[in-house]
Amino acid sequence: MEKDRDPLKRPTYVTQIGNTTIKIRSALPFMTPEEQERWWIENDSLPEVQMFKKARIAALLHVAKAEAARENNSA
Q1: How many domains does the chain fold into?
Q2: Are the CB atoms for 26 and 14 separated by under 8 Å?
Q3: Which superkingdom (predicted)?
Q4: What is the model's pLDDT at position 1?
Q5: Which of 18, 27, 44, 57 has the lowest CB atom count within 10 Å?
């Protein structure tokens, strides 16, 4: 488990979107859905996880508000 704590020793997930190469140094993309769920629960106290959750909630609220505004404008 100590290996996972050192970000430089984590596996790197690499994807290409257009001219941009995205590298994620985490084991998370390689985990099964069950392992991912357990990882999120076990690492809930990490600052990165807290920031991700806050950003996700903000994004979901923004989408919900935009959809509500669109429905009100079309009615």
Answers
A1: 2
A2: no
A3: Bacteria
A4: 45
A5: 18
